[in-house]
Amino acid sequence: MTSSIFRPVSAQNKTQPDIILIMADDVGIEGLGCYGGASYRTPSLDALAEQGVRFTHAYSQPLCTPTRVELMTGLDNHRNWLYFGILRPDANTFGHAMQKAGYRTGIFGKWQLQSYDPPDFPNAAKRRRTGMHPKDAGFDQYALFHSLHTEDKGSRYANPTMLEGVQGQSGELKTYDGQYGEDVWVNKILQFLDQPSETPRFVYYPMALPHWPFQPTPDTPSYNPTVPQETDLKYAKDMIEYMDSAVGNLVTGLKQRDRLRETILIFYSDNGTHLDVRSTMQDGRVIAGGKATPRQTGIHVPLIVHCPARFQPQVRDDLVEASDFFPTLLDLANASQEAPADLDGQSFLPVLKGQAGTRDAAFFWYDPRPGWDKDRFDRHVFALNRTHKLFRNGQLFRLGPKPLQESLVRRPTRDDVTARRALQAVIDQALLNVNEPPLVDAFGDPL
Question: Could you tell me the pTM of the whole model?
């Protein structure tokens, strides 16, 4: 699993630490033991949470691309949205900003932001190959699944296919026969860190796990990469647990290199768990995954930050959402001057240091259309705080004392009225002087 080249942590720039941002693909808080999940073994992430900062109120958008483009640009979706599976080719990403801050940057994992619609999908010609290519995204090195057209992407798990290259170059498609995607990416991350460098390193690791198709992992007794892979819901458990194993392998590699204490390791997720997955909580509740929905099960995700050299272990209930990562990464890099002036996100570095947070509410603009398989979606605009969630259509929900609980307010109390007023102000402010993307169907035709 690991490269043989080790480099001591003493060569590291102490004012600009190495940073690794991991984003899982489709897992809500119920998937981790440290958040009260009981269905899966997640010892590596549980250990990071125990030794690091665990956020109990971290949120994403309900679906992957909306979260990914918000995460990488620091802008709410109504200010950066084109199509599903597309990142604006002229976008300013946190990769660009971290390079300006003096970092050597690498991205390894899933892209799916340059071309998404199949060629026979209505109006596909208007959208195919219109997004950002990884070579232009602000990363010195990349190795990514689904970098180009959907029909050419291959596998992300057994015998994975990925586009590999360096900044400014179109790269080469490679298939790793007999290997498993996450193992390849973890090895590449460690090899990237092993490369001699006079500058600190930033790695973005958008994982493939545990996204459908649910298939065997190397820890599944029946796993055999030489035969066609069976797809079945029963493998969801194996995939969530292998997600944890991949993180554990990365942690082991950092520890072997004497880098674990000084490296800032961040774990997050792009949305909630797949709708067909049922998970049991330690309190006995059975949670149905809420991916793609604006329910709490679709947006309430884990966030763990681990760096013993800098941050004391703690559990925080401060709100964090996807746009917050861009300014936080720059603060962690001691380069806040590189943050664009128009970011929607707020840095949560003060929270990591044990100070009070400044975010009182989070705003969501969600509409993943147009795009293949997006005909079942609608636009949802809403805001939430720790106790309530308000939709632009007027629906108000109370968020229960147990994680993932929510209930529609039918007979408002004084607290409900106060919450409605505060959250409506958040929505109004976010939409002020902004031209929302037009309402369209899955094909991009006006509604």
Answer: 0.96
